[in-house]
Each structure stands twice: as structure tokens, then as C-alpha cells.
Amino acid sequence: MGYILVTGGAGYIGSHVVKDLLKRGYEVVVLDNLEKGHKKAILSKYFENIDLKDKEKVKEVFNKYKIDAVMHFAALSTVGESMQNPGKYYENNILGGLNLLESMKDFEVKYFIFSSTAAVYGEPKIIPIPEEHPKNPTNVYGSSKLMFEEILNWYDKLFGIKYISLRYFNAAGADMEGELGEDHRPETHLIPIVLKTALKQREYVEIYGTDYPTPDGTCIRDYIHVSDLSKAHILALEALLNGMNSEVFNLGNSRGYSVKEVIKTAENVVGEKIPIKEAPRRPGDPAILIASSDKIKKELQWEPDFPDLETMILSAWNWMKNHPFGYSE
Hints:
47% of the residues are buried. The longest helix has 21 residues, at 86-106. The strands form 4 sheets. The chain has a 7-stranded parallel β-sheet, sandwiched between helices. It has helices spanning 12-23, 55-64, 79-84, 86-106, 140-159, 190-198, 226-241, 259-270, 294-300, 309-322, and strands at 3-7, 27-31, 46-48, 67-72, 111-115, 162-168, 170-172, 205-208, 220-221, 223-225, 247-251, 257-258, 276-279, 288-289. The chain has 2 domains: 3-172 and 223-251, NAD(P)-binding Rossmann-like Domain (Rossmann fold, 3-Layer(aba) Sandwich), CATH 3.40.50; 190-221 and 254-328, UDP-galactose 4-epimerase, domain 1 (Alpha-Beta Complex). It is globular. It is built from 10 helices and 14 strands. By secondary structure, the chain is α/β, with parallel strands linked by helices.
């Protein structure tokens, strides 16, 4: 058995997948430029500090290690920034991925797991969103991921590179052993923002819009524990290694949680009131986003181990209390 190459393996989701791969006995090479990732989150002894946009450096990695499969997490993923700087997102998310695929073609590596996004669907017409839902991204981030899925489709047809693309919304929580957690700069995810407010690192949580057509007027989103995401990526990898054809799966929780529900649950976990401030809606924020996981449950027997919001928030809180300044301590 050769190596599994994990791009973005110093990032939030990638680092959790690396940990779980190592536990299962795989040899793992982490590729990360550390622009968003953290050196302290890298658990593999094989690490290449490389930018995927550098085609020759990517090729050198394939030359150095016998790679059996690629798991691709390295991407820019902030929706707002993607709308202000589209060129940066297309260059990073598409060109970087293309350089990987070209090296895979040259070195005859046949298996690719893609960390995609449910943002490829855009404004949902059906809730929960099934895989065959029309694709109409409302932001550049979602568009860049959808374009790369198209590219994967052609590299399968032309060169036999089999892929599984996993589309999901909001990763949440932290490693249950407390070793890894969520540390973005700047932080844009709701749960860590709420918990940073509980730690007095922020004055309040801003709620963008309280007049949505939802039970409490705030947006409803799909949260999934990062360890459950990791499990799904590894099930997908093993399915490909065992001969499965290229596939696309959504990953979601069977229900969504509103912004107010997240804050209330966090208050129960931390045992105190968390200050909020109501603000106007943000343009382009749909009222409800929930992805259906029926297909992956049926075809890969995936089941989330930590589906409840309280466990997600508690695991994140445990990590954050011990790492109040993230990995930088």
C-alpha cells in the first residue's frame, strides 16, 4: 500500500481526516501551504509545504512518494471574499485542483476524494436538497467547486480517474479527544463565533436577519460534526479502492438548526447568557439550507455518530477552552 495524499491536511476538516486515516493504519502525506492551515494540526510525519498552484512542486510530491489516492480539501472557502475577489477563488480552487489531476494522470493515480460543497445548488427548490437538485450557485465559491466537479467528470471519462465528490454545508464541533479543533483567521462560522463571545473574545454575536420565513425568524442551517464528515470521506475512499465508480453524495444532518437555536444550545453548554445584536439580512442568504443524506446512508452505510447539536457545540467548547487562542499558543 502506498500513501494517501491529503491536501489541506493542516486545515480544520483535513486535519481530522488525517488523524482518522492514521488510526486506520494508512500512510499519509499532508500537502498544505499553511496560508489557512496550522503546523500544529499536522499529525502525519510526512508533510510538504507546497502551494497547489505551483505545478512543478506538485509533480515533485508525486515523484517522491508512491501515491495511491488523493483526498482534496485545500480550497479557499469564504463566500463573501469570493464575491469580492473572484479571480483569486477561481485560480486557487480550479488551477490548484487541475495541477493535482495532471500529476495524477502522469503518475497513474486513479482515486480522488473531493471535498465539495452544497453551495453548488444555490437557492434550494426542494428541502432537504437531493443530489439531483438543479445546480445554480449564487456565489463564486460555489461556482468554483461546481466547475471543478465538471473537470473531475471529464478526467474520469478521458483518463479513468475515479472520484467521489462530497457536498456539505457546515462542519461543526471538534475532535472528541480534544487534540484538534476549529481555528480560522478570521472566523466566519457561527458556532466558534458564539463560543468566542462566551469566552469574552467578542462583544456579541450578530444575527443577520430575524424576519425569515422560519419558526423563529432566523436562518436555518445544516450542521454536521467534523468527525462524522471525516468518517464519510474515509468510507468514500475505501469504496473507490474497492472498485466503486465515480459518485456524488450529499452529507447533512436530517434536520437543520436556526441561528437562535445554536445560540440557545451554546448557552446551555457554557452555562451563561451570550450577548447578541440583531442586524439586517445579508444579501444572498437563503432562509433554509439542509442537505439530504439518504443516498450516502444507503450506498455507503454512513451514519453520523454525533448528530445532535449539543454534542457538536460541547466538543467545540472543550477544545476552545483549552485553546482559547487556537493553535497559536
